histidine kinase (Ideonella azotifigens), 469 residues
Amino acid sequence: MTQGNGTAPPSLRRTLLIWLLAPLVGLVPLTAALIYLLARSPALDALDRALTGTTVALAEIIEFKDGQVTLPLSPQTARALSADVVDETVFAVKSPEGRLLGGSFDLAALAPPVRVDEWHFQQAWLTGKPVRLAVHGAACGAQKAQVCIIVVAETLGKRNAAQRAALLAAGVGAAVLALPLVLFSMLAIRRTLRPLRRAVADVESLMPHRLAPIDAQGMPQEVLGFVHALNRLLARLHEAAAAQRAFVADAAHQLRTPLSVMRVETAQALATPHSPDLHPVLERLHAGAERGSRLAQQLLALARAEGAALDPGLKAQRLDLAALVAGMAERWLRPALEAGQDLGFELQPAWVEGHAMLLEEAIGNLIDNAISHAGAGTSITVRTETREGRSWLSVEDDGRGVPQDNLDALWQRFRRGRDASSPGSGLGLAIVADIARLHGAEAKIEPSAHGQRGMRVLLMFPFAAAVPS
């Protein structure tokens, strides 16, 4: 859906996601960096403490004899101090005068000056390799102020592995934090918007004949006022529709009596001797009274159909369409004979859930429509059957028919076929359509099976199981 200017309307879901998840974009990397630093620092400190152990061991070996500082270190001890599974370890010990007492000359050259008991750690390069230096000043010689500098260097294998492990821990920790937050945010938004989606579905299901209020249970407080306002609007619409139907029904009811009197009086006037000059006038008056009486009756039927659609207390019954048609058959035989038509019935059980009064009105309108418009010398067949899992009711004739492009217009109120010659109100099929819609049936108008002649009106109801005998 787009707005009038062609842009998409703002999405509440998208807005909530942005406001909830946008902070994570900054917080998650910050959290990952914090986890990395917290995991990396103690790991590197532990490795530095391992270097200090080697340095302290070398300090214990230094001796002062005959005025000379020496490092009596055997090859086996030197190999033991340099042994490591992962890294290469190198050491160097310098006398207070700067003389190399033992170890690597290149490493000794890297040692900065330090005081007694002072420690110093730094990164450096030794023979083309990055190393970690631990430098310690140990008291030696005749005077305590004399300092022997001890340097231990180790390649960075374990340190790099420790940093990779800390980085991995930071990434996993951030993911473990971010993913549940994202999922919980989406779930919270989904659950929060669920009542709104239900309300949208309820509003979309509203029909002119069904203006039920929207269920406000579970609605967020922020939209509860809108739902209540919408329900009040629906109530006003329901009252207005009810008032309109009541007016139509009352007007039609009030018109029926004078129209019936006029119809009887004009019929009697036509049956008694009268001036030939008055005969056309009386015929027109009688036809008008007949048409008005029929229109009033159909308006009442329309009001009843719409009232039934809006009345939740009106319960449907399980009915057999064949029985309904059979009960009405005799009523229509005489009009068909007077019109010179052959009215036949092919009735098989066809059970539906519905309202007998409205279904009888629909059946009567279909038969009356066929008798009125099929023409003399035609055949009309009323069928009921169960087919394709539905209950079918059809009224078919082999009369003049209706042009294909004019079929859909027949369902509209006060619309008649272009070639209609007999009198009518244009309400019969519209009432049938309303009653079919109320019963969940599909209504169709299609050409008859008699080639180019005739028309068939078909109602297809949801099937209902037969009432047990």
